[in-house]
Amino acid sequence: MANQSRKIPIQHIVGFALSITLTLLAAWTALRSSLPVMWIIIAILTMAVLQAAIQLFMFMHITERGAGHAPWNMMFHAAVIAVILVAGSLFTMSFGFHYDNGGGDSQPEQQQEQHQN
Amino acid sequence: MKHIRKYSKKWILLLSIPLILMLSGCSELTVMDPKGPVGEQQKDLIIYSLYFMMGIIVVVFVLFTFMVIKYRDKPGRDPKDYKPDMHGNKTIETIWTIIPVIIVTCLSIPTVNTLFDLEKPAESSAEEEPLVIYATAADWKWFFSYPEQGIETVDYLHIPKDRSVEFRLSSADSMSALWIPALGGQKYNMAGMQTTLYLQADENGVYQGRNSNFNGEGFAEQTFKVHAESKSEFNEWVKQTQHSAPKLTQSKYNNLLEPGILDDTKEFSSTHLQWVDHGSMEGSDYAVKRHWDAYGKKLHLKNGKNHNHE
Amino acid sequence: MSTEESNAKPLEYRTESGELGIVGFWIFLAAEIALFGTLFATYAVLFGRTADSPLPSDLFEPGSVLIMTFILLISSFTCGIAIHEMRRGSVKGLVIWLAITLVLGLSFIGLEIHEFILYAHEGATLQSSAYWSAFFILAGTHGVHVTLGSGWAILLLIQFAQRGITSITSRKVFILGLYWHFLDVVWIFIFTGVYLIGMVI
Amino acid sequence: MQLDEFFVTGEPLIYAGMVAIALVTSAVIFLLTYFKKWGWLWREWLTTVDHKKIGIMYILSALAMLFRGGADALMMRTQLAFPDMNFLDAQHYNEIFTTHGTVMIIFMAMPFLIGLMNIAVPLQIGARDFAFPYVNALSFWAFFFGAMLFNISFVIGGSPDAGWTSYTPLAGAAMSPGPGQNFYLLGLQLSGIGTLATGVNLMVTILKMRAPGMTLFKMPIFSWSSLITMFIIVFAFPILTVALALLTIDRIFGSQFFTLTGEGLPMMWANLFWMWGHPEVYIVVLPAFGIFSEVIATFARKQLFGYSVMVWSIILIAGLSFLVWVHHFFTMGAGAFVNSVFSVSTMAIAVPTGVKIFNWLATLYKSKIQITVPMMWALAFIPSFVMGGVTGVMLGMAAADYQFHNSYFLIAHFHYVLIAGTVFACFAGLIYWYPKMFGHRLNERIGKIAFWFFVIGFHVCFLPQYFLGLDGMPRRVFHIVPEWFNLNVVSTVGAFGMGIGFAVFVYNIYYSYRYSEREKTGDPWNGRTLEWATPIPVPEYNFAVVPHVDSLDAFWTMKERGESPYDESKVKPIHMPSNTGKPFIMMGILTLASFFLVFEWIWLAAAGLIGGIIMMIIRSFDYDEGYHISSEEIIETERSARGL
């Protein structure tokens, strides 16, 4: 933990440099790299989580003594809930669209074939 | 002592009501007396679970009655029977954690099996391709399109018996659910989406079908009759409809889509699938766009004869 | 560390109400995460449902979004410095750094509004499709939060001018700092989950 | 807008409602003026930040809402009693079941339990008040005005009519135009914000303000269940806030989240609604478990069996409650795999719940049961709730659920768990803590009459509905067919039995106010936890001396050791927060803004919102530090209350 009386806030400066680097790296990965899309998404989301952790630990003093266990406990559970919300919604809501491109003029027989896939 | 008798009487009474009802009533309840293999499977599952549930209820009720009668505060009780500082017992608590786990496991396995079974046609008619029927709900009526036969019915349904029917469910507007309790469970009809429901009848008869998912004022009247008949009778009906029923035109169909309750059932010798499939994303706003203002109007619907096909 | 142990806690924790306020705010932030999580879930499920309106990959520009991201990252840093200065007991340092944070926050909002107007000109509005509704409400909710945070910062600057650093004002600024960093975290996920992924797919 | 569009017209029952509202309002105004009580009302109640008074206001409002929801229920049961009944038409029936569900869950069950928590939790943990008394007042007024906004819909603008689940696309702008659905959205939004604030507030209170020595695992079980409930609230209510906001924006500002146009996805509403809705079920059931645990331990004269297992099972239930929401729409067709996952997670909840049931039974083992009225409610809960619980497991079996869903089987199930769980607990808790609130007990004999009417009526009402469901009777139909007649008429008789039970209960409040003996000590039930260590009436500062706790059932231990919770030599001045009218005014302004938004008068609504923001700014500059009660005053209060 940073000493309060220290003149230069080293922790903040390191955190800031890290977050700028991670942002640029994420932008580069997404826009310039030639990775497959799935890997890009995984990589940049990982970097986002890292940045969030930097904010929490280096800027927001989540482990500071004053507030007890509540902060990190709540943040941990909030993260779990956020994952449940996003992943759970995607898991349960991606059905019933067997032929999004079918449209009104396609024939029932074709639809049946697609459906059996 | 008078009190004890009073209480025990009450619980015996309470215990016996469900049992009596269960024994006498089960065979007459629609869901417990299914007319096809899908409903049969679901009924078996329900009965199977009922054994466990009755077991749990009996155990809890017996323990409960015992505790309440035995440990009431009354004069002349054995002081050894009172242990105010008892705070727990690891062994017994572990036992009654494990028992529910076992019960849940016993219930999960057949549930999951049945779930996967219900996603395909019934085994008893596996050699035959299922009959495809597009069941489209609209406020507050049902369109049944038979693409292979090229016919469409409104607010009633004919199916051959001993052949699986593959319902392709969608809705022209609000969310509904197709439910024919005598044949099996329901599934939602949703605009812009298509779900599949397999049902099959093994007995001739006329069954009640309905929308079971609340969707506005005419909800209670969104019912239909299911005529299950032999294959030859069904083919006869198809042929007759193909010959005698009028063609369904788009403007006629659009009129029928207007929210409201139809007085009579209808049949046509062509289907609406040629110009719109409400189960696709493109078809989801078809009805709403055309009848935007009509959905807000009230029918002032009263209990009574609201149509002739009840 | 040992010298710090013997020191009193930072000023904002010293009174009971200060400590309660900070713990309460952490819990509130957890609720905010659930709120943004729901918006992200909606966005994710509605992804691709653009109907007749433009695709996100046609509209999103890396340049302006990166500038917005850097502005917010810098403001988060300056906000951290402001808290640091407060703990050193420097009212002047606190006010200067907080004012810089405020200016950065306001310019972020300005850029975001500018961006939204650009999209609207291209035919992507709140009403045009499910995807764009989800986009505007997700990014817009974050924008509203930044706006509220800026308004809050102004109120606190006035209160500091009036009262200096007390256990109450320091608690208020510390909480504002938590809020501001939190908004930065949310933006990182919007930047990654909405803009970068929207440009990739 | 014409006046006849603003007020609902053409329905005799609603005219009667209007007349009743006008009469009651003028009577209240007359009485307050005649007895010169306006100042008293403002000083003592509307501006209070005292958790005990706020709790009482919560409970009184909840009882009023129970009356409203119950009246709705009786009207529905009347309509369904006979096949040819024409008491309500389809539209009116739809409005009534919508308001019944919403009122009972949002404006009755939750506020009732939050009211009991307001009264009991700070006392149980040895705290002087909530962590943020100002916010507590704000929460109450948010709930109260939200409830009023929702309830006014039946005379102004028209009630919502899309069910308490408000499924889209039915509830969207295309199919439900007009203000009705907006009332639902904004009324819930207001009270939901209040609930969320309570969640944060009470959580901090419990985490940070416990008496010295009271570790988490020495905390009374009701406080534990409150803590976990608040935890669920903090994570679940934001989901509701977002869902309601999105639908509001859909309806008023034309976005396309849940619409049929613009490739909107109506099913996402169901998904979000139940992501909040299932945890919500546990928000109203877990505190009930806590109340029953307290009542059973007290009147069994025995320590709760397996305290730590009880706590862990609450925690486990809370965790699982976020992982089962799909079981509310198994029939949506998400596929066998998705349904299997949620089927198993749903049934898994039966494990910790079953453990709790057995622990309660074990608490009764070798105990000394005293049949008081709260204990009777708690005892009736066990078998009744088990019947609801096992049918819940049956509903959790997705393949069978295809037949149960949307039928009266489902209706019977959730009334069995919500009435036997929540409503019984509300009665038990209210009667149990009644002496702490009002200084006298409720009459036992009348209480027992109310109990028997209600409990027997409950079983007669809902048991037949399981069988109706199996006979294919869907929920929400406004008339029945002849095949369903027998069981429906039985059910209606039961419903009126419950109505009589409630009426007797309310009469008991009046009777006991007139005739019950006033409590002399603070401990009428020979209680176990700290709330009984305070005198009656509870002084505004709760504890003159905050007790030191070193065991579970702290007060019981004190009594066994012969210690007194009050030690005059330790009395010090106590800091108290000042009363303030700001929460009342602020929520009043926001309610006005919501009312304008209901009618889509955007500029007026914006003006109201700005008013609300101005109130917040004023609050930000408010450095009121409260005041201190002197030691002499405390000693005087304690001496008179304790009869020293």
UniProtKB/TrEMBL annotation, chain A:
Record membrane topology: Multi-pass membrane protein
InterPro entries on file? Cyt_c_oxidase_su4_prok, Cytochrome_c_oxidase_bac_sub4, QoxD
Q: Which GO terms describe its molecular function?
A: cytochrome bo3 ubiquinol oxidase activity; oxidoreductase activity, acting on diphenols and related substances as donors, oxygen as acceptor; proton transmembrane transporter activity
Q: What is its main location?
A: membrane
What Gene Ontology terms describe where this protein resides (cellular component)? cytochrome o ubiquinol oxidase complex; plasma membrane
What is the E.C. number? 1.10.3.-
Cross-referenced Pfam families = COX4_pro
- What does the protein in this record do? Catalyzes quinol oxidation with the concomitant reduction of oxygen to water.
Its recorded name reads: Quinol oxidase subunit 4
Q: Which organism is it from?
A: Lentibacillus kapialis
Please state the gene responsible for encoding this protein: qoxD
UniProtKB/TrEMBL annotation, chain B:
Arranged from A to Z, the UniProt key words for this protein are: Cell membrane, Electron transport, Membrane, Oxidoreductase, Respiratory chain, Signal, Transmembrane, Transmembrane helix, Transport
* Record CDD domains: CuRO_UO_II
Q: Which GO terms describe its biological process?
A: ATP synthesis coupled electron transport
Transmembrane annotation, as ranges: 50-71, 92-112
Output one GO MF annotation: cytochrome-c oxidase activity
Q: Which residues form the Cytochrome oxidase subunit II copper A binding domain?
A: 128-240
The main place the protein resides is membrane
Enzyme Commission (EC) number: 1.10.3.-
Q: Which residues form the Cytochrome oxidase subunit II transmembrane region profile domain?
A: 23-122
Enumerate the subcellular locations listed in this protein's record, separating them with semicolons: Cell membrane
**What EC class is this?**
oxidoreductase
- Reactions the enzyme catalyzes: 2 a quinol + O2 = 2 a quinone + 2 H2O
Q: Which SUPFAM superfamilies match?
A: Cupredoxins, Cytochrome c oxidase subunit II-like, transmembrane region
The record's listing under Pfam families reads: COX2_TM
Query: Which cellular component terms (GO) are annotated to the entry?
Result: plasma membrane
Bilayer topology term: Multi-pass membrane protein
User: What family does the Swiss-Prot or TrEMBL record give for this protein?
Assistant: Belongs to the cytochrome c oxidase subunit 2 family.
Question: What's the stated role of this polypeptide?
Answer: Catalyzes quinol oxidation with the concomitant reduction of oxygen to water. Subunit II transfers the electrons from a quinol to the binuclear center of the catalytic subunit I.
Put simply, this protein is called: Quinol oxidase subunit 2
What organism does the UniProt record list as the source? Lentibacillus kapialis
Per the UniProt record, the lineage of the source organism begins with: Bacteria, Bacillati, Bacillota, Bacilli, Bacillales
UniProtKB/TrEMBL annotation, chain C:
What gene is behind this protein?
A: qoxC
Q: What biological-process GO terms show up in the record? A: aerobic electron transport chain; ATP synthesis coupled electron transport
Q: Which GO terms describe its molecular function?
A: cytochrome-c oxidase activity; oxidoreductase activity
What is its subcellular localisation?
A: Cell membrane
Gene3D superfamilies attached to this UniProt entry = Cytochrome c oxidase, subunit III, four-helix bundle (1.20.120.80)
Q: Which domain of life is it from?
A: Bacteria
What is this protein for, i.e. what is its function?
Answer: Catalyzes quinol oxidation with the concomitant reduction of oxygen to water.
Q: Which reaction does it catalyse?
A: 2 a quinol + O2 = 2 a quinone + 2 H2O
Domain Heme-copper oxidase subunit III family profile, by residue range, is: 1-199
Q: Which InterPro entries match?
A: Cyt_c/ubiquinol_Oxase_su3, Cyt_c_oxidase-like_su3, Cyt_c_oxidase_su3-like_sf, Cyt_c_oxidase_su3_a-hlx, QoxC, Ubiquinol_oxase_su3_dom
Topological category with respect to the lipid bilayer: Multi-pass membrane protein
The organism named in the record is: Lentibacillus kapialis
Gene Ontology cellular-component terms for this entry are:
plasma membrane
Is Flavoprotein among the key words of this record?
no
Q: Which UniProt keywords apply?
A: Cell membrane, Membrane, Oxidoreductase, Transmembrane, Transmembrane helix
Protein name as annotated = Quinol oxidase subunit 3
Q: What is its EC number?
A: 1.10.3.-
Which segments cross the bilayer?
20-45, 65-83, 95-119, 131-161, 173-197
Q: Which family does it belong to?
A: Belongs to the cytochrome c oxidase subunit 3 family.
Automatic annotation (TrEMBL), chain D:
State the top-level EC class. Answer: oxidoreductase
Give yes or no: UniProt keyword Transmembrane helix. Answer: yes
Give the membrane topology, semicolon-separated if more than one. Multi-pass membrane protein
InterPro entries hit by this protein: Cyt_c_oxase-like_su1_dom, Cyt_c_oxase-like_su1_sf, Cyt_C_Oxase_1, QoxB
Can you provide one Gene Ontology molecular function annotated for this UniProt record? cytochrome-c oxidase activity
List the pathway annotation: Energy metabolism; oxidative phosphorylation
Q: Which organism is it from?
A: Lentibacillus kapialis
Annotated TM spans: 12-35, 56-76, 96-121, 133-156, 183-207, 227-249, 269-292, 304-326, 332-355, 376-400, 412-434, 446-467, 487-510, 585-618
GO CC annotations? plasma membrane; respiratory chain complex
Q: What is this protein called?
A: Quinol oxidase subunit 1
Cellular localisation: Cell membrane
Its function, per the record, reads: Catalyzes quinol oxidation with the concomitant reduction of oxygen to water.
UniProt entry keywords in alphabetical sequence: Cell membrane, Copper, Electron transport, Heme, Hydrogen ion transport, Ion transport, Iron, Membrane, Metal-binding, Oxidoreductase, Respiratory chain, Translocase, Transmembrane, Transmembrane helix, Transport
